[in-house]
């Protein structure tokens, strides 16, 4: 049958073709634009260049959370299986009274799965009679990762009171040593020399923790002469001079004041960075920073957080804490907030010492040889247990008190703390005593 074409057929077809062409052009333009846009976008999240990353507190590499690959999942399963096998072996060695081998196997098992509640608890049971404090920490960590793990809960109910008693006894001992030191005449030559040496040691170790390579002798030279040391960077000199300036400010303005304000903390930081970065000194950071596995609060939250920190620092509750507890917790809180782009560690340690000095304790020296241990305890606090960090600060406080008591007593019963520059093979530092050629006597501490 022949199709009849009317006079209106061609215009309709032309209209359809016209609109189809327009639609195809629009779609082509959109597709072309989308392809260009897609080409400009990264195919995955890209990390910043190494030169753009500045980690001023912890040298541990940044770890960005990401989905685990199949190979990584298989590795975790292998670790879990190996850890279980090692755990059984460790328990058998324990039953056979082969304690040294059992200890090593327990350690290896825990290194494979650090958060396994079963392994944490069994290792704690093994250590309980020998080191109840570490055992209690392991039980605490097990409960943190599994609040319903009954075996850990039962064991911790038995260790918590004992450990608390040990901690309180140590704090009582620190008070006794502080009171004994307070009987020494501050105008005596021995006390003046001890104070000077402790002052230099604090600066040397505090900047050393942050990576400053100056030796103790070089640090002393910079502080006493303000002259440059050959072969050392300008920044390293300025770090020492900045901390010196901040400590002088604390001694002159804060030790005898009733409260420590947010402005005081900013003034401390301003002086610490005054010679290194005067623009950033005394001001909150404006960007996000990353500190090892810890991601500090956003820059926009710092004002509120620091106001809350100031209120806590001067609250009635905080005033009732033992000075060492208060100082350690204040240190942790400030470094956890990480309010500055640089100098957080030095500011936190100096704030801690400001609190201690207000209560009659000498400024505490945290040795740079203890750097990794120091960071580990801060990480444990991040995971929920701040007690190991408080114990660490208490230990450092006692060593510093012993140093003062040894230096100011003719026949001191206290052991000289180990505060040398280099670490020995067994992991402990050694002390080096030099004769004072100026004739000031054997009480002078030359480390």
From TrEMBL:
Q: Which residues are glycosylated?
A: 251
A GO molecular function term, named singly, is: AMPylase activity
Please give an example of a GO cellular component term from this record.
membrane
Its keywords, alphabetically, are: ATP-binding, Hydrolase, Membrane, Nucleotide-binding, Nucleotidyltransferase, Repeat, TPR repeat, Transferase, Transmembrane, Transmembrane helix
Topology term for the membrane: Single-pass membrane protein
Q: Which residues are catalytic?
A: 338
Designated name of the protein: Protein adenylyltransferase Fic
Give the organism, scientific name: Polypedilum vanderplanki (Sleeping chironomid midge)
